[in-house]
Amino acid sequence: SMENFLGRPHCVIFVEPDRKFLVKKDLIDCSDLMEKANKILTEGCETPLHAKSSLLKLAQALQNIDLAHTPTAPVKIVTKYGKEEVLSFFEMDFLKATTWFSYYEEFAKLNIEERLELMQAIWHVFARLYKLSTAAMGKRRQMCEEQMLMISHDT
């Protein structure tokens, strides 16, 4: 949003701030990420699924995505969470959400521009819920401790 980009609430967006208080913002080029998402949405779901309802189909798709990302190695503890790690998880989460939504037939009926706009608006909600469910699974399987957050199945 403009508020986040400028670092000011919307009620003072058009008021020119004093130059010494301006915060430097780093811009991240997401064109490669959007091309990957466009490819996923254009090609459609990886493996067609059939279920009694869209909800069951999405649940089955999520299980397939989970199986594709199940770790074979022991759990790796992330001790550094800097810019590179954040961008890596950002990309992984966005593409995982895009892959999951590619299984939703009603979503596929929208034109590609609308689907990309929706993904940009909602991927972070999917990512947050996915991380919470992954952490719960990790705690249930005793793969991580109570005060830890398991954030990914990927290595």
Overall tally of structural domains: 1
Uncertain spans:
none
Mean pLDDT: 78
Shape: globular
Helix content: 40-55%
Oligomer: single chain
Instruction: Briefly note the structural class of the backbone.
Output: mainly alpha
The span between the termini is 32 Å
- Count of alpha and pi helical runs: 6
Structure summary, number of beta strands: 0
- Which percent band covers the strand fraction? under 5%
Radius of gyration: 19 Å
Order of helices and strands: HHHHHH
Largest sheet: none
Organism: Caenorhabditis remanei (Caenorhabditis vulgaris)
Keywords: Receptor, Transcription, Transcription regulation
Pfam families: Hormone_recep
InterPro entries: C.elegans_Orphan_NR, NHR-like_dom_sf, Nucl_hrmn_rcpt_lig-bd
General description of the model:
It comes from Caenorhabditis remanei. Residues 74-154 form the NR LBD domain. This protein is an all-alpha fold and 155 residues long. It has helices at residues 2-6, 31-43, 54-68, 83-101, 105-108, 112-140. It has one domain. 55% of the residues lie in helices and 0% in strands. Helix 3 runs antiparallel to helix 4 (83-101).
